[in-house]
Write a structure and sequence with these properties.
heterodimer, A: about 200 residues, mainly beta, 6-stranded mixed β-sheet, 5-stranded mixed β-sheet, 2 helices, about 30% strand, B: about 110 residues, 3-stranded antiparallel β-sheet, 1 helix, OxRdtase_Mopterin-bd_sf (chain A), OxRdtase_Mopterin-bd_dom (chain A), Molybdopterin-binding protein (chain A), DUF6510 (chain B)
């Protein structure tokens, strides 16, 4: 396998009817990372939504998880071809976080501790389709999987579900993120197999 | 290497992109691990072989060994390669001397 070949080579199983095109099922949970794993003390952790006018809404760790929590069970699909079905999470819906945020923005740029970014339409963060999560399968989310908290947007390829999420900047224009500026698709719908630009 | 002439003017001050083919082929035919690069973030110059490479990812990400900022990203799609060097202010590649092939300032 060449070093530049995308595609985590895990144990492959036959595709099933619940899988988007080009995906294989894994029971493992491969760890993919573009850099060192940030270690964020919970006393320093914060989540910030910044609007197009520059106003900010901030939550500390304790403030975040005092909000109503949800426990979504969702399928996740990585652009490197693995899918994992029926994953169990706990976190706060972006509907809750965006409630009361005064914005007319169309786009969101998610940013993380460690510098990672990813972009998506703001619409895709609404209507019960996105969460900030801090627990997986009943336990704290491990750092290698994005803990203490990550974004979860399971209807898009998993690179949009930013690990170590720190905040979201809302904007009137689309600003491509880390992988979107390096050949990956701007939107990333697994069911339309939007892996790369031009797909 | 050809210079393009515009019918209504004299010589242009640039050449068309076809002339890149030779130099680029030369550059990417060499072993880049012997090259050095300067980090656009902290300014440290490092051998490419000394960068910290994260390849268990949707692409290859090479980071500065001093400040850990991204110096190089390479994504291979089924039909192309995307090379992003915005994190490097230069990449210096050892090359054999070929005086006859070296472009340089010419007396006007």
């Amino acid at each position: 396998m060449g070093i530049v070949s995308p595609g985590f080579q895990g144990r492959r199983r036959p595709s099933g009817p619940n899988l988007p095109p080009g995906q294989y099922l894994t029971e493992d949970w491969p760890v993919l990372s573009a850099g060192p794993t940030p270690r964020v003390p919970l006393t320093d952790w914060e989540f910030v939504i910044t609007t197009e006018s520059g106003s900010e809404v901030r939550w500390s760790w304790d403030e975040m998880w005092a909000l109503p929590n949800e426990t979504p069970t969702v399928d996740i699909h990585c652009v490197t071809h693995w899918s994992k079905l029926g994953t169990n999470w706990q976190g706060v819906s972006l509907d809750t976080l965006l409630d009361g945020v005064d914005t007319t923005a169309d786009y969101a740029l998610v940013h993380s501790y460690g510098g990672y970014t990813t972009n998506l339409p703001l619409h895709d963060l609404r209507d019960g389709r996105a969460w900030v999560v801090h627990r997986y399968d009943g336990a704290d989310l491990p750092a290698e999987h994005g803990g203490p908290a990550r974004l979860l947007v399971p209807h898009l390829y998993f690179w949009k579900s930013a690990k170590w999420v720190r905040g979201i900047r809302l904007g009137l224009t689309d600003e491509p993120g880390f992988w979107e500026t390096a050949g990956y698709h701007d939107y990333g719908d697994p069911w339309r197999e939007q892996r790369y630009q031009g797909d | 290497m050809t210079e393009q002439l515009r019918p209504d003017q004299g010589r242009m001050d640039y050449l068309d992109g076809n002339v890149l083919a030779g130099p680029m082929r030369d550059v990417f035919a060499v072993d880049l691990t012997t090259a050095t690069g300067r980090c656009a973030s902290c300014g440290q110059t490092s051998p490419m072989a000394g960068l910290r490479v994260y390849s268990n990812a949707p692409g290859v990400v090479a980071r500065c060994p001093a400040c850990e900022e991204v110096m190089l990203r390479l994504v291979r799609t089924p039909t192309s390669a995307w090379l992003d060097l915005r994190g490097s202010t230069f990449v210096q590649i050892p090359m054999p001397a070929e005086p006859a092939m070296m472009p340089g300032p010419t007396a006007m």
